[in-house]
Design brief:
It is built from 3 helices and 14 strands. Strand 7 and strand 8 form a beta hairpin. The longest helix has 20 residues.
Length: about 230
């Protein structure tokens, strides 16, 4: 029987190298099970352009592996540029996020959103997702303006956190790869949101699922990069 991820490791990881090491152990254990086929799991192509491996879900908490970058097996265009996102890159989660970067560099750019501006630059859209992998992107009446806020660059072995409801976007340096192990803790009464055009319309996005072979290849590649002395 597989050992579940200890959620307390995420809570202790900020400022604790021992807890971070535990997260790396949890990630490599899960990846080894996926790569060998001992765990039945299929990677999903996320609308924001990365691969998501849903490691486990328990009530209002869930752990995922996110894989970014060119040359990632299972992603379209592995010999060219990364797949284009099918959703707005500026978004906010209905859940609190704690993320451990396994390799590479991840920029977390916070975005300042101002309500009731004199001149609106964006409309807020609500994202309703169902278990079948369909995202309904619905326009709301909220018109806002936004501008870049502070950016935090996090590299392998480091942790970053983000509260529910804070708009942000993830930035991966062009031509590089990265992977993270992420804990999400849902907060009641909140919805996932994104920023879109002022006159944008609602639409639907269907998430594509990788097959078992693609998922296993991705897991093996991530394992190799975690173990490399200088992952790229």
């Amino acid at each position: 029987m597989r050992k579940p991820v200890d959620y307390r490791l995420f809570e202790r990881a900020v400022g604790s190298s021992e807890a971070v090491a535990g997260l790396f152990d949890a990630a490599t254990s899960a990846l080894d099970e996926i790569a060998s086929g001992r765990r039945e799991l299929h990677a999903v192509r996320h609308p924001l352009g990365f691969l998501c491996l849903p490691v486990e879900r328990d009530g209002d908490r869930g752990v995922c592996l996110h894989v970014f970058g060119t040359g990632t097996p299972g992603m379209p265009g592995t010999t060219g540029p990364d797949p284009a996102p099918t959703a707005s890159p500026v978004h906010s989660h209905s859940w609190e996020l704690t993320s451990c970067v396994l390799y590479g560099s991840v920029g977390n750019l916070r975005v300042r959103v101002r309500e009731h501006p004199e001149v609106a630059t964006h409309r807020v859209f609500e994202v309703r997702s169902d278990p079948a992998g369909v995202d309904d992107i619905r326009p709301t009446s909220r018109l806002v303006s936004c501008e870049p806020g502070p950016e935090q660059t996090v590299v392998g072995g480091e942790i970053y956190t983000l509260p529910a409801g804070e708009f942000h976007t993830s930035v991966i340096p062009r031509g590089t790869t990265a992977a993270t192990l992420l804990l999400g803790h849902s907060r009641p009464g909140r919805f996932d949101l994104s920023l879109g055009p002022v006159h944008g319309r609602g639409h639907r996005v269907v998430r594509q699922t990788c097959d078992a072979a693609q998922t296993a290849r991705t897991a093996r590649t991530v394992l190799r990069r975690i173990d490399a002395p200088h992952p790229r």
